[in-house]
Amino acid sequence: MQRPRPPVPGTSSNRPTQNSCYILPKGEKLVYVDDADVSKYGRGWFHLTADSLDELHAFAARVGLTTRAFHRGARHPHYDITAAQRLRALRSGALPVSPREVVRIARQIPTPAPIVATSSSDAQLALFA
Fold first, then answer.
1. pTM of the predicted model over 0.90
2. How far apart are the C-alpha atoms of 25 and 3, rounded to whole Å?
């Protein structure tokens, strides 16, 4: 699978060039962050996603994101992050992409099927899934 080459830390551009691609080693997953800069609550917000939920949560933990930042219930699994968290993610190896790309990538993540309650006791347990 060909993906954009990760940016080299410390370079003037944090975006991969159009022609810079490499082949990922088998099983390696990537993490992506967009440049959406959505204004809410007086600050800019961005989205962090990955090729798999496991990689997304592991990377988020490595860069110090709390599980509260994970956008549960969204049509595409992602973390909502601030500009400072975005910079930390980029410095830790996340690839910068457009907001459209984040949505496209996130919608391809296999997600577990939702738990469907078959009884009132199952409904209580589904709250904790």
1. no
2. 11
| Three-state DSSP class for residue 81 | strand
pLDDT at residue 21 in the model: 45
Residue 121 lies in a domain: no
Could you give the number of structural domains in the chain?
1
Q: Is residue 65 domain-resident?
A: yes
Radius of gyration, alpha carbons of the chain:
16
The domain containing residue 43 runs over which residues? 29-111
For 118-127, how does the pLDDT look when each residue is reduced to its tens digit (9 = 90+)? 555 555 544 4
Give the count of alpha carbons within 13 A of 84, CB side only: 3
Listed in order, strand segments (DSSP E) in the chain are 2-4, 21-23, 31-34, 38-40, 43-50, 79-82, 95-97
Residue 71 phi, psi (nearest 5): -85, 85
Q: Report pLDDT digits (tens) over 71-94.
A: 887 788 999 999 999 999 999 999
First to last CA, the chain: 33
Q: Residue 99 falls within a domain, yes or no?
A: yes
